[in-house]
Write a structure and sequence with these properties.
alpha/beta; Glycerol-3-phosphate (1)-acyltransferase; seven-stranded mixed beta sheet; three-stranded antiparallel beta sheet; 10 helices; 10 strands
Length: 271
């Protein structure tokens, strides 16, 4: 796998290279099987055509379950089932991260980019909880934490595409978040400077304790369980439905309930 190291446009939908995706799968699958012993269920539930994958965000910037899922999707269903990822615009522009992630299908997180992808019949992956969920405290590792964000729901309603909930247990145990540091982030105005709502205190390898998110860590060994749930289609769609606050809240509550129930079941199975 050879990756061109020139910086890629993070809004260009043509960056994804199937050869890079296949190379990643071949290289990482054996490592994941040995390290995480992944169990992945429900792949047969993934529909044809455009869809919005909605997942719970785990493991900080590393997000190991994202790659475990991508490998399984590619092996079992092919490149069309592997989603394009809506990524935070700051890390996706970092050197090396930019060249690798965009070749795998990451684009800047925006409704415009998502709609362009849906128009192509593509799958799109979003983690509504963002940094608030990716760095949630260890005690909340079995909780869905979307932090009040409902933009994903409006996106699905506007585009008229089904939501495919994907729930993961275990991946948030690859490091230990002692505190998410919300007050610190607010005091430092990191939401405006870096679009971060948290500034966590974390224990990870090889850095040990860090004040602030570790930008690299070796994941602690843990078993990762992933379940693809039944697609959720809504009775109403379009801009009018997406602008109906009460309807958006109702649909969001439905998604949260389904995902929390599934995450609780996966966590119980892990015990």
């Amino acid at each position: 796998m050879i990756v061109d190291m020139r910086k890629n446009d993070i809004d260009d939908l043509g960056n994804r290279d199937p050869a890079v995706v296949e190379g990643m799968v071949r290289a990482l699958s054996p490592i994941f099987r040995a390290y995480f012993s992944p169990e992945i269920g429900g792949l047969e539930r993934i529909p044809e055509g455009a869809a919005l994958y909605v997942g719970n965000h785990n493991g900080g910037f590393l997000t190991p379950d994202t790659y475990v899922l991508a490998c399984a999707l590619f092996r079992e269903l092919g490149i069309d089932a592997v989603p394009y990822g809506l990524a935070h615009e700051v890390p996706i522009q970092w050197p090396i991260v930019n060249q690798v992630m965009t070749r795998m299908g990451a684009v800047r997180a925006s409704h415009e980019n998502a709609h362009r992808l849906f128009a192509r019949g593509a799958k799109v992956l979003v983690y509504p909880g963002g940094d608030a969920e990716a760095f949630r405290p260890y005690r909340d590792r079995h909780r869905i934490v979307f932090d009040g964000r409902r933009g994903y729901l409006r996106l699905a309603l506007e585009a008229g595409v089904p939501i495919v909930p994907i729930v993961t247990a275990g991946a948030h145990e690859t490091f230990i978040v002692l505190d998410d540091g919300r007050k610190i982030a607010k005091t430092l105005r990191l939401d405006r400077l870096l679009r971060l709502k948290v500034w966590p205190t974390v224990f990870s390898l090889p850095l040990g304790f860090t004040f602030g998110p570790p930008f690299f860590n070796i994941p602690l060994p843990t078993k990762i369980r992933i379940e693809v749930l039944e697609p959720i289609e809504f009775e109403r769609s379009g801009k009018e439905a997406a602008s109906d606050e009460a309807y958006v809240n109702e649909c969001n509550a439905r998604v949260l309930e389904v995902m929390q129930r599934a995450l609780t079941a996966l966590a119980e199975a892990g015990r």
